Write the structure tokens for this entry.
Amino acid sequence: MKSSNCPRPPVVASWLVQSVLADDYGAAMVGDLIEEYYERCECASPASASWWFWSQACRSIPSIAKASLLGHDRLGNVGIAIGVFLVMATLKVAIERALSTLVVLANPTQVVLAPMIFLATTSIAGCLARRIRRGATLFLALFVLLAVVVLISIRVCTIPVPWWYQLIFLTLGPLSVLIIPALVWTTRSEH
């Protein structure tokens, strides 16, 4: 029901909703939002319709995530997330050991490489979890967040680093588990 004077609905907001929702509900819910967007665009300005679309997307995501966490197959998703988390941790340790045998890593080099290795392994783990079962990625992101909180609180890093360095691990780790797989699957579905 697209109108000629209405621009496309906010692509990022649509993508966010679809990346959190299960496959069978994502397209239908986003389709309903898009239909309402075009109706609002006819009656009001495109900016007002876009604002409404974004507000609906942002309001929906927490309840969608909660429903996903409490869903009927949460035990299966938790099991998959734990298995993928263990694979991710093993991969991270293996990469760090391989690098340490190849090169003597000084503290500044470790400070630079640690987030890169961490984000690479969390992204790979997120893709693996999503490939196995989409609902497991949310649990995996929670496990990554909890692991980072525990590691920061027991001060596993002996190198003095600023607070924002730890914030990188706290935020980008769980986000890479969710966002990178969603980007990979979005680009795959477009081709």
